[in-house]
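Key result, reporting period 2: structure in, sequence out.
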């Protein structure tokens, strides 16, 4: 019998070296030159824009009545990233030559708000732009002093209308970033703004205002249109207003007549895990009253244990017992007790993000609660939109405190779902509606299926929904299969295939790891009760003890419950380990159902670009079309993340499948290695697959506000490698980190030796330098490869200046007998770490006081050999490695095993 066994810490020797070469054997790609005539329309566009900019600047100065010092803000949309990584060195030149200091960066740093901090230098920008506009249409601008103007897509003054964003009443204003160039004026306007808002409160012009702890936003309630306009017209330190209203939950359509709940969820006598449920309050109805322990209300009702709608109560019941709720048992022991944090009075309304963040912090610090559920979302995100203030505050909170928040990806609007089924259109058919850029109907665009704020949060876990409803006798209504993402469930909003400011992102500037949701759980289907989940009702009428509902709101607490079970079993593991183990246990359904949608997308692009069918295109044309289309696998990952966690794999190891955990730190600009010894008995296998290894890396980030590319300032990644030397992990780390290490000289080819001699004798040309570096890298990868070469790292860092980074990654490798022989039964897990440059002052200080960064690496090793009467992989792994059983509640483990027996 394959018994349930506790997970193991891997405590093998490790080594590190302070080395991280961030260069590449390739040069920067030059900005594409064009026929000089092709710049004509570009010049005309910039000419019109710059005239408007000057007019808008005069108007804005005339509007000022409250602030004596003006801070002129211009928005420049670029065709290339704003950085010093490109040939034009825009970051340095815009400040040093044009007096433009960046105060907010969006659209992966292709749209930048600049403060004009040197009027004299800005006249040079004016002069060069005019030179470009007036230049001869027959002469290329490349190589001229004004060539940098070809990198501009558009330029405009930041007006009051841009700032107020047509928001009203309850809203938040983002602040621009305060830096050394704008500090004096910024602080003066901040003081005036505080006094102005305090005065408005005294005369009841606004209900209240709050500044967040990090000074990134001001939240205002009850502001009139005139107040908002006045603020936007006067305060240059305001970047943009946003309305944060919860996406309303449609009142339940289906009631199930029943005279009693016939359900009792009881406290677990030896479980101390309490989870916080952020919702519209929890009513302690009979089935859950024993497990709802207390609450905090940030609304006007003053009672966290009251609710006018059952949304929060349903969420609480699923967080308490998880999937066991659907087993039909009427007496359940809770996995978690519930603490109610009431953030809404009803099921919609204004989301007070500052109070929510303060409430989470307070509850964590006073009650010790570490797991939270947030099934309430704001509006959906546009494609490639920067992280929201809400997500930023939650990421900062998770970085600073020992917490993990499970966040719903959000649902499509209920009324839209109904309307889409009533109007026949190919775009409305599952799964076409998820992803079809450029195609829309009167009521739908695929952008409407993007995740909702704050589901883009990176330090927390976002949960999407499968169409499964735990009722095998029923079928989904709108979705094709219960194992597929539900029709209403929302997808990742990042799409690196889509143009930004009229240009395409370089493949180097995208990141395959930036997708949401992280996980999926069953959430039922809409629109009829056969597809929905049967959940708790209030029982107010004597017949509404149960109701039917569906949504990511229900999937999210089911995922949270799994985390609670994991914490119950292993109370001392870090929450990043919880995240890593959950992701590492997950698996996803096939993506084949999306292939027709991808084919249709290619066909549409083929006709649009080449006026021919895809099959009639040349191979080069087909490649060009394919590059512009997300693959079926990519779309599925953007909908389902890593998939659905497997409870057994999450909680337990087995005799033939071991879950290992590494909780450690790595310093900045270091490489680190950890050795993993492979049991000798696996060499007796004649099977092509001996062992399957999958690993997931997770770590917390300190987010950078107002800098889209650098929002995650921390790069960390890992790889599998050959242990080319034994018993010296630090030396091995040095070899892995340095392609010029002396270790490789014995393996140099004649071509490398020839180029190396020439390098020292007479020097190399740029192309020869690149070739030598490429040859050395290729040799290094062959030597270190577990197979013929080293696979790509879990995340590519290059170019670090322009690459948006992820803080969770996954890799897997299958070892055959010959692979184990090649590595001498010793697999290397290599990790590396670097931090972004050009960080704002507060993050530079963070880097100074944070020399090393924590991470969790979850590793699952499965024996796939066909050896007869083989020994226990679990035991053999412990015999040849330094292991420690993860501190666990063996009573829970034994109890679970007895229940299984």
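The corresponding designed sequence is given below.
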């Amino acid at each position: 019998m394959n018994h349930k066994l506790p997970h193991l810490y891997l405590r093998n020797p490790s080594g590190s070296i302070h080395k991280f070469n961030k260069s590449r054997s390739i040069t920067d790609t030059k900005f594409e030159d064009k026929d000089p005539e092709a710049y004509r329309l570009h010049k005309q566009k910039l000419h019109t824009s710059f005239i408007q900019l000057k007019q808008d600047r005069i108007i804005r100065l005339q509007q000022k009545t409250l602030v004596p010092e003006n801070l002129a803000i211009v928005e420049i949309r670029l065709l290339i990233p704003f950085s010093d990584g490109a040939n034009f060195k825009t970051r340095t030149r815009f400040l040093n030559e044009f007096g433009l200091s960046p105060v907010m960066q969006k659209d992966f740093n292709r749209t930048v708000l600049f403060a004009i901090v040197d009027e004299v230098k800005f006249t040079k920008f004016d002069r060069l732009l005019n030179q470009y506009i007036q230049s001869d249409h027959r002469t290329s601008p490349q190589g001229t002093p004004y060539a940098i103007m070809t990198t501009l897509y558009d330029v405009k003054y930041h007006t009051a209308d841009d700032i107020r964003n047509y928001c009203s009443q309850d809203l938040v204003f983002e602040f621009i970033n305060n830096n050394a160039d704008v500090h004096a004026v910024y602080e003066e306007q901040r003081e005036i703004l505080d006094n102005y808002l305090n005065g408005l409160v005294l005369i009841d012009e606004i209900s209240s205002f709050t500044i967040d702890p990090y000074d990134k936003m001001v939240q205002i309630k009850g502001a009139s249109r005139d107040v908002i306009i006045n603020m936007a017209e006067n305060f240059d330190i305001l970047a943009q207003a946003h309305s944060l209203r919860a996406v309303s939950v449609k009142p339940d359509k289906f009631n199930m007549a029943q005279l009693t709940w016939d359900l009792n969820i009881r406290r677990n006598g030896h479980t101390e895990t309490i989870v916080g449920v952020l919702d519209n309050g929890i009513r302690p109805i009979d089935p859950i009253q024993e497990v709802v322990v207390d609450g905090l209300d940030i609304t006007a009702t003053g009672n966290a244990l009251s609710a006018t709608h059952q949304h929060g109560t349903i969420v609480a019941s699923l967080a308490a017992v998880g999937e066991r709720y659907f087993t039909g048992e009427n007496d359940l022991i809770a996995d978690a007790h519930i603490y109610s944090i009431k953030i809404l009075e009803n099921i919609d309304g204004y989301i007070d993000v500052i109070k929510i963040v303060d409430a989470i912090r307070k509850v964590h610090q006073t009650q010790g609660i570490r797991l939270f559920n947030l099934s309430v979302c704001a509006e959906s995100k546009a494609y490639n939109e920067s992280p929201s203030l809400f997500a930023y505050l939650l990421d900062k909170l998770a970085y600073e405190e020992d917490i993990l928040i499970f966040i719903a990806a959000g649902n499509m609007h209920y009324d839209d779902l109904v309307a889409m089924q009533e109007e026949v259109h190919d775009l409305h058919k599952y799964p076409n509606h998820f992803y079809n850029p450029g195609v829309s109907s009167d009521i739908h665009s695929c952008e409407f299926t993007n995740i909702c704020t704050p589901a883009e949060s990176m330090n927390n876990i976002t949960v999407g929904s499968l169409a499964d409803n735990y009722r095998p006798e029923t079928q989904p209504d709108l979705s094709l299969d219960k194992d597929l993402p539900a029709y209403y469930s929302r997808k990742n909003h990042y799409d690196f295939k889509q143009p930004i400011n009229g240009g395409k992102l370089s493949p180097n500037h995208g990141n395959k790891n930036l997708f949401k949701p992280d996980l999926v759980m069953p959430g039922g289907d809409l629109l009829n009760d056969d597809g929905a989940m049967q959940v708790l009702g209030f029982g107010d009428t004597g017949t509404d003890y149960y109701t039917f509902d569906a949504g990511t709101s229900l999937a999210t607490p089911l995922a949270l419950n799994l985390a609670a079970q994991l914490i119950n079993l292993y109370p001392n593991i870090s929450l990043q380990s919880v995240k890593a183990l959950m992701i590492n246990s997950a698996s996803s359904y096939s993506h084949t159902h999306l292939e027709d949608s991808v084919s249709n997308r290619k066909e549409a692009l083929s006709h649009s670009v080449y006026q021919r069918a895809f099959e009639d295109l040349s191979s080069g044309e087909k490649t060009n079309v394919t590059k512009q289309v997300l693959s079926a696998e990519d779309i599925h990952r953007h909908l389902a993340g890593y998939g659905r966690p497997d409870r057994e794999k999450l909680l337990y190891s087995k005799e033939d499948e071991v879950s290992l955990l590494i909780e450690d730190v790595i310093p900045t600009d270091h490489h680190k290695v950890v050795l993993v010894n492979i049991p000798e008995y696996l060499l007796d296998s004649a099977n092509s697959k001996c062992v399957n290894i999958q690993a997931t890396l997770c770590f917390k980030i300190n987010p950078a506000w107002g800098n889209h590319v650098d929002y995650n300032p921390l790069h960390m990644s890992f790889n599998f490698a050959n242990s080319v030397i034994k018993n010296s992990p630090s030396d091995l780390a040095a070899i892995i980190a340095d392609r010029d290490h002396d270790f490789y000289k014995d393996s140099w080819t004649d071509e490398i030796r020839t180029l190396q001699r020439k390098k020292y004798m007479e020097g190399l040309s740029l192309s020869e330098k690149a070739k030598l570096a490429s040859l050395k890298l290729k040799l290094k990868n062959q030597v270190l490869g577990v197979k013929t070469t080293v696979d790509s790292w879990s995340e590519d860092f290059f170019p670090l200046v322009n690459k948006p980074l992820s803080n969770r990654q996954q890799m897997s490798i299958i070892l055959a007998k010959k692979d184990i022989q090649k590595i001498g039964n010793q697999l290397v897990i290599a990790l590396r770490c670097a931090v972004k440059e050009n960080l704002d002052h507060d993050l530079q200080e963070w880097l100074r006081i944070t020399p090393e960064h924590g991470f969790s690496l979850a590793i699952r090793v499965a024996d796939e050999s066909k050896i007869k009467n083989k020994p226990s992989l679990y035991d053999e792994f412990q015999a040849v490695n330094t292991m420690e059983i993860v501190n666990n509640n063996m009573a829970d483990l034994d109890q679970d095993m007895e229940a299984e027996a």
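DSSP finds 23 helices and 34 strands in the chain. The mean pLDDT is 92. This case is discussed further under Risks and Mitigation.
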